[in-house]
From TrEMBL:
DNA-binding annotation, residue ranges on this chain: 53-72
Keyword Lipid biosynthesis in annotation: no
Protein name as annotated: AcrR family transcriptional regulator
Keywords, alphabetical: DNA-binding, Transcription, Transcription regulation
Domain HTH tetR-type, residue spans: 30-90
First and last residue of the signal peptide: none
Any coiled-coil regions, as ranges: none
Pfam families attached to this UniProt entry: TetR_C_11, TetR_N
GO molecular function: DNA-binding transcription factor activity; transcription cis-regulatory region binding
């Protein structure tokens, strides 16, 4: 594109409100980075990775294509930055704690992260479509989203086991992967994004059924 890739162009640049210098020594507006990455996330959610274009992202962000290419010279590097930009599930730091396993599990499903369940599933469907095209994107999505969710489910299940809600013997490590694995399958291969009801069914008829045999 006639511009040299910037160093570390596949990660989110800049701190909160901080301007960074680009490869040409010019100061870089981190707030513009955030606008572009949010626009890229929205385009990805709407169109999927294959149909996502730099032109569409630039138009939604109100920026020039050259501005995007200076920061992220490829679509893959842009989406890698989007994955970093969305952060990690907040429940990684603060789990639901109602004293009831089912309520805690559904609170995880109902998290407000990325706009709540419906909005989040649209966005993650777009990111998952990107993972199908790039091992680097698949690895980034696993580390940023899938692994934290799996750990959150494991922690909720372990806490429930400690207070006697789960009948032994139960393999908590395996059960913790059930909902994230189903979600990944639905997002990758489903004709439409899963719904909140899909997750409630998975919690009730798969996860809790395995935790409480005979009830």
């Amino acid at each position: 594109m006639g511009t040299a890739p910037e160093e570390h162009g596949d990660t989110l640049h800049g701190g909160r409100g901080e301007a960074r210098r680009g490869s040409g020594g010019r100061r870089r507006d981190a707030s513009l980075d955030a606008v572009i990455l949010s626009a890229a996330y929205d385009v990805l959610a709407d169109a999927g990775y294959e149909d996502m274009t730099i032109s569409a992202v630039a138009a939604r962000a109100g920026a020039g294509k050259a501005t995007l290419y200076r920061r992220w010279p490829t679509k893959e590097s842009l989406v890698l930055a989007v994955v970093a930009h969305i952060g990690r599930p907040p429940e990684e730091q603060e789990l639901p704690d109602t004293g009831d396993l089912r309520t805690d599990l559904l609170a995880l499903v109902d998290s407000a992260w990325l706009g709540g369940p419906a909005s989040r599933l649209r966005g993650l469907r777009g990111l998952t479509s990107a993972a199908l095209h790039s091992p680097r994107l698949a690895d980034a999505l696993r580390r940023q989203v899938v692994d934290p969710y799996t750990e959150a489910y494991r922690a909720l299940l372990q806490r429930a086991a400690d207070r006697g809600e789960i009948a032994p013997p139960t393999d908590i490590a395996v059960l913790a992967e059930v909902v994230p694995a189903l979600a990944t399958h639905w997002l990758m291969f489903g004709a439409t994004p899963p719904t909140r009801a899909s997750f409630e069914t998975a919690v009730d008829q798969v996860l809790l059924a395995a935790c409480r045999p005979g009830r």
